[in-house]
Write a structure and sequence with these properties.
single chain; 396 residues; alpha+beta; Aminopeptidase; Nonspecific Lipid-transfer Protein, Chain A; 3 domains; eight-stranded mixed beta sheet; seven-stranded mixed beta sheet
């Protein structure tokens, strides 16, 4: 077995492995260039595909460079041979050697695969399906602004609103120009159209929504369409309600769906009939700290504190140590220490706490860490808290 990048002339084989392993239709989705791949070859034949995109993720006011892992698959004839473990191990080694992207993240086709490699579910993704007529608010409220149609020419407006929205949030990606182009010009759905609107108050943009319309499936109705929300950003409570009110007035729409709902989204607490939302919840983004020394000082912290913790990590031996983290709202430092640890945990639990998915006290109650100095749990909870629950509005 050989672990290496795919060559340009091997990218057709790369795409075939992804299609076969993940059962994608042909033609397959777009893939990164060969320079971003790391694959397993057996007797010279590509059997495991793997790619990693250089990206940046927002974590509580900080920005963390990370590797967005995607296009992972192994041919059925090569499964259970350890191909993906060897590829993943080599990728972690390369990231540690380069020292530039201390975190990895991905969307898991099957969670059990990635739990083996130290990943944990750091973002919970929700969904709504609601009829427009059921979007009615509890308290008396009237929209005070206006909407206008928008498009690619408004990229700077979209980008500014998005960047302001995610400033203190966790889990959202910093979007490059290419990401924005794909966001604003997605592939058309069969029989559907894509739309973008900006909400303004006194001429100032306060939010936007990108959405697509699709015809109802056969047999559902003789007429009507569905709306699928693709991107939803708001800066004020008024902008949030106004955008939902915008959808409530679409009389020939049968359903409005939103499939990337943040865990702390306010809509269930604003509607007259929240049960009409048909809420669902599932795991979203999976994250993994590859290099503790490079990762812990890059997220944002709201409190001053000193945390001492021992980590076990069977894939990244450089993480196996006791670490001392000093934090403040102005920054943080982390280094190895000989001081006794307050808690001991596997790297997968640290990932959950790092992203603010669970608190340290919650991890202790779950049995996901050992508490060595119980009196320190309150300061752990304060230091590692995030202003918002983690969420992510992009797939990769």
């Amino acid at each position: 077995m050989e672990i290496r990048k795919a060559k340009s002339e091997e990218m057709d084989d790369f795409k075939r492995v992804v299609r076969t392993a993940l059962m994608f239709p042909s033609p397959a989705p777009d893939y990164p260039g060969d320079e971003l791949t790391l694959c397993a070859f057996i007797d010279g034949k590509l059997v495991t595909s793997y790619a990693a995109l250089p990206m940046t993720i927002a974590i509580n006011g900080g920005e963390v460079p990370f590797a967005g892992v995607t296009a992972v698959g192994t041919l059925p004839v090569a499964r259970r041979l350890g191909c993906l473990r060897k590829v993943t191990t080599r990728h972690f080694e390369l990231l540690h050697e380069e020292g530039e992207k201390p975190v990895t993240a991905l969307y898991a086709t099957r969670a059990a695969i990635y739990h083996r490699y130290g990943y944990s579910s750091v973002v919970t993704s929700g969904s709504y399906t609601v009829e427009p007529r059921d979007i009615q608010f509890i308290a008396g409220w009237e929209r005070g602004g206006n909407f206008r149609e928008a498009g690619e020419a408004d990229m700077s407006v979209f980008s500014d609103l998005y960047n302001r929205f995610i400033e203190k949030r966790t889990g959202y990606l910093r979007r490059s120009e290419d990401m924005w182009k794909r966001q604003l010009e997605p592939s058309k759905r069969e029989g559907g159209e894509n739309y973008a609107v900006i909400y303004e108050e006194e001429g100032e943009p306060q939010g936007y929504v990108l959405y697509a319309t699709t015809p109802l499936p056969p047999g559902r109705s003789k007429w009507g369409n569905n709306i699928s929300i693709r991107d939803f950003i708001w800066l004020t409570p008024s902008a949030y309600r106004s955008i939902w009110d915008f959808f409530s007035r679409m009389d020939i729409i049968t359903e409005v769906t939103w499939g990337q709902v943040p865990g702390d989204d306010p809509l269930p607490y604003l509607l007259l009939e929240p049960r009409r939302l048909s809420q669902k919840q599932s795991d979203g983004l999976y994250g993994r700290i590859v290099d503790i020394e490079k990762a812990m000082d890059k997220r944002g912290y709201n409190e001053e504190g000193t945390l001492i913790f021992k980590i076990t990590d069977d894939m990244c031996p450089w993480n196996n140590s006791t670490w001392k983290l000093d934090t403040s709202p102005n920054g943080a430092t982390v280094k190895q220490t000989a001081e006794p640890p307050q808690v001991e945990m596997p790297v997968s639990t640290l990932g959950l706490i790092y992203f603010g998915q669970i608190s340290t006290s919650e991890a202790a109650r779950m049995g996901r860490l050992d508490v060595l100095e119980p009196g320190n749990l309150p300061i752990w909870d304060k230091v590692m808290s995030t202003d918002y629950r983690p969420a992510c509005a992009n797939h990769f």
